[in-house]
Specification:
With about 325 residues, the protein is mainly beta. It has five helices and twelve strands. The longest helix has 8 residues. The N terminus and C terminus are likely disordered.
Length: about 325
C-alpha cells in the first residue's frame, strides 16, 4: 500500500488526527549506494559489428545503456539476518569504427556484462507466507507458499563510458569480467536488444573491444511488514479532471491555456557539465609476434607464435594472465 500526498491533506481543515490504522507495506531494512569504476569490460559485438572492427583503424564510444539487472538473494550461513545480493548488470554499448579517412564511421553495437556482490541486513527468516492474491496465467487458487525472504531492489542509471579500446588477441589485458552463460546464449528477454544476432563466445578469434564505464546504483533490502500510521482523512482529490481536445470545446480556448514555450526559443545558459562524455578515438595497436606477457593476456590459450587456440573457455570469475609466451 502506498501513501499518496494530496493538497487536501496538507490543508489545515483536514489535518485533525482522526484515528490510527494498520497498513501492509514494505519496510527498507538496509541499503547502500555504490560508485563503481569498471575497467576493461569485454564487449561482445553483434554479427555486423564483428565485420566492421576487423578493418577499423580507430574506435570511439558513443553511449551505454543499462538494459537489465539479474538479482539473486541468499542468506549468509551463521550470520542471522544478513544476506548476499548477487547482481549481474547487462549493458548495450554503442560505438563507432573508423576505417578510411573521410568515410562515414560504421556503428558498433555490443554487450558488456558486470558482476558484483554486496552484503546487507534484511532481518531474520520468519513465518512462511501464503496469499490468495490472483496470479495472472495461473489457476485462481492461493499462491504457493514462499519463504519470508527479503526482496532486493536496485536503482541504477545508465552508465558513463570512460574509455574504449580495440586490441589484438595477444595485446588483451587480463580478463577480469569474462562472461560465461549457459549454452553460450543470452536470456531470451535480452535477445530482442540485438536483432542482428550476437556472439558471446569468450574465445572468439580476432580483434577484441574493451570498455571502461562508471556506474551509480542504490541497492536495498525490503521486507513485507505491518505498521501503524495516523489517519487524517481519505485522499479525495481536490482537482477536477479537465479534458484537452474533447468534443464540443473551443480549440482556440484550449490553445490559450498553453504557456508560450520561451525555453524552446531561448535556451537557458549552460551550467556545469552534466552529460556523458564521448571517449576519444582510440587507435588500434598492431599485433607484435612474441610480445611480452607482462600485464597482458589473450583471454584464451596461446602458443609460442601468438596464435590463439580456443579449446578452454574462461570462467566467470577473474582468471590469471595468459599472455604470449
Amino acid at each position: 500500500m502506498e501513501l499518496v500526498a494530496s493538497s487536501a491533506v496538507q490543508s489545515e481543515a483536514v489535518r485533525t488526527f482522526k484515528e490510527a490504522t494498520c497498513i501492509h507495506t514494505r519496510k527498507i531494512y538496509d541499503s547502500c549506494k555504490d560508485k563503481d569504476c569498471i575497467e576493461d569490460l569485454r564487449l561482445y559485438l553483434d554479427i555486423p559489428s564483428q565485420n566492421y572492427i576487423a578493418g577499423a583503424v580507430g574506435v570511439r564510444a558513443k553511449s551505454a545503456e543499462l538494459i537489465y539487472i539479474d538479482i539473486d538473494v541468499e542468506p549468509i550461513a551463521y550470520i542471522n539476518g544478513h544476506y548476499t545480493v548477487d547482481l549481474r548488470y547487462y549493458y548495450r554499448i554503442f560505438a563507432e569504427a573508423y576505417t578510411v579517412p573521410g568515410r562515414t564511421p560504421d556503428t558498433l553495437v555490443g554487450l558488456a556484462v558486470f558482476d558484483k556482490r554486496v552484503t546487507l541486513c534484511g532481518g531474520p527468516l520468519g513465518s512462511k507466507t501464503f496469499s490468495s492474491q490472483y496470479a495472472y496465467g495461473r489457476p485462481d487458487t492461493q499462491n504457493p507458499m514462499a519463504i519470508n525472504m527479503p526482496q532486493a531492489v536496485v536503482e541504477a542509471i545508465d552508465p558513463m563510458i570512460l574509455s574504449i579500446k580495440v586490441l589484438e588477441p595477444c595485446d588483451c589485458p587480463q580478463v577480469r569480467y569474462a562472461f560465461d552463460s549457459e549454452g553460450g546464449m543470452l536470456p531470451p528477454q535480452l535477445l530482442a536488444y540485438f536483432p542482428a544476432g550476437i556472439n558471446i563466445n569468450v574465445c572468439e578469434p580476432g580483434r577484441r573491444v574493451f570498455v571502461s564505464i562508471g556506474q551509480f546504483s542504490i541497492i536495498r533490502l525490503e521486507r513485507d511488514t505491518q505498521i501503524m500510521v495516523p489517519v487524517y482523512d481519505y485522499c479525495l482529490p481536490d482537482k477536477d479532471c479537465t479534458g484537452i481536445g474533447g468534443a464540443g470545446e473551443d480549440p482556440c480556448e484550449l490553445f490559450g491555456l498553453i504557456d508560450f514555450p520561451v525555453s524552446s526559443f531561448f535556451p537557458p545558459t549552460c551550467g556545469p557539465l552534466d552529460v556523458t562524455p564521448i571517449a576519444p578515438i582510440a587507435s588500434i595497436p598492431s599485433m607484435v609476434a612474441g610480445a611480452s606477457s607482462s600485464g597482458s593476456s589473450c583471454g584464451c590459450v596461446t602458443t609460442t607464435t601468438c596464435e590463439t587456440t580456443c579449446d578452454v573457455p574462461l570462467p566467470v570469475k577473474p582468471v590469471s594472465s595468459c599472455g604470449c609466451k
